[in-house]
Amino acid sequence: MATTHPSHGFLAEPPPSPEVQALFDGDVADHGFVMNLTRVWAHSPSAKVALFALLGDLAQQAGLTFRQRGVLISATAGTVGDSYCSLAWGNRLATAAGDDVAHTVLRGDDDGLDAVDAALAGWARTIARDPNATTAADLEPLRRAGFDDRQIFAITAFVALRRAFSTVNDALGALPDRQLRDEAPAGVDAAVSFGRPAADEAS
Question: What DSSP string describes 125-185?
């Protein structure tokens, strides 16, 4: 009988299948190891594939750069207290924009951010914190940053789906991979003081 693993979460390992193996192989190719969250999503490989295809489509519609995706995801994850995506994307944002920017976005302090980064981070936090509290005025920083209504829709849907992704991972107990914590630059490591702790052992 399959058993749960404390790093992989509260679910038992899914039975082997070509679809599950494809997810695992993709992680090894991209990261060098199988991520704990992937073992959770391996219970429905098609859901993970479809979700990330949709996220990619929305990012393209919005015209988001890699840095801008990092700002949106890090701001969202930091707001909801998701240590997993905060470490994963905080590290990527640090590489793309610098450790100081990643630290700032994760901690919810927009001082020092340019107008575009601040607009994206602010909107992501507004959505993640309380979407029912938004007003039309909340969109003005995005418009001043050059985003049109189609792009704003795509950005909003992108953030909402990333929040849903974090919710599944957190609710089912997936621990951030030890590699993510070990590789985090000082600013990211200091900023991510919330959420589930990193796994004690490498996946």
Answer: HHHHH-GGG--GGGGHHHHHTT--HHHHHHHHHHHHHHHHHHHHHHHTTPPPPHHHHHH--
